Amino acid sequence: MKIAISGKGGVGKTTLCALLAMEMVRQGRKVLAIDADPNGSLAGALGYKESESGRIEPLIEKKALVEERTGAKPGSMGGYFVLNPKVDDLVHRFSVEINGLRLMVTGELKEALGGCYCPENALLRSFLRHLIVERDEWVLLDMEAGFEHLTRGTAESVSVLLVVVEPGQRAITTAKKISSLARQLHIKRIGYVFNKVHDDEQKRIMTDVLGAENVWAVIPFDMHAVHSDLSGTSPFDSCQGMLDTVRTLIDTLEAKA
Q1: In angstroms, rounded to a whole number, what is the distance separating the alpha carbons of residues 226 and 186?
Q2: Are 11 and 196 spatial neighbours (Cβ–Cβ below 8 Å)?
Q3: Region of poorest pLDDT, from 28-37, 83-92, 227-236
């Protein structure tokens, strides 16, 4: 399955992605995690120690690679370059092994002046298409609120979109916009994951707005997750309550596959 995870910033996308990935590995699945959120920190949530092992360079920042594969210098606009560069060896060459899974950091798409398409974007979009359409392992994409990384053809091959929502009008409004965009991109399976829920009243209000049939999981507020984030450690060993819900969510995902 190819699972994209989105939502407003700060709702817990990265924590959910990390817990899903690590639990899937524990259950014996082959998992590739992709940090496609420019403000994300998926490596840390998976237990990677940047202070010990160094920063993971995003794919889009590898200037020599961009030029080698597209035939154009990074940052150039217009002119000629390869729109579908070779990308099938990039996971093997540049992914990092963390606790039994592979991680890659893609980086942010470059803003193209005047609508021009740049070499970095060509490489990144080709790579994401390869991940979603051609690879055979479980792929988890920790994404920002938009879908800039995905073309229509790529999005149509996403198995499931999980939209993470916390109690609050801005998070709910963002979730509704994300779902609308996803339907325009022909993503067929869209589910909400309520996170940081304090009580049944919050759950009821959110459900009334978003629809009970679309809610795939409800994760109670967990102070252990806050402490894990503050300390820069993985939530997998400390957030047992969240993990129990994640295990049930994995069963739901398989049922909807």
Answers
A1: 35
A2: yes
A3: 227-236
Q: Which among 189, 220, 194 is positioned nearest to 207, based on CA atoms?
A: 194
3-state secondary structure of 122: helix
Orientation of helix 63-70 relative to helix 119-129, angle to 10°? 80
Spatial distance between the Cα atoms of 33 and 141, rounded to a whole number of angstroms: 6
How far is 152 from 24, CA to CA, in rounded Å? 28
pLDDT in tens, 48-58: 988 888 889 99
Q: How far apart are CA 218 and CA 237, in angstroms?
A: 20
Please give the structure tokens belonging to residue 53. Answer: 């092992």
Alpha helices (H) along the chain: 13-26, 42-45, 50-53, 63-70, 90-94, 119-129, 152-156, 169-184, 200-210, 223-231, 240-256
Instruction: Look up the pTM and report it.
Output: 0.91
Q: Which domains does the chain have, with CATH numbers?
A: 2-256 (3.40.50.300)
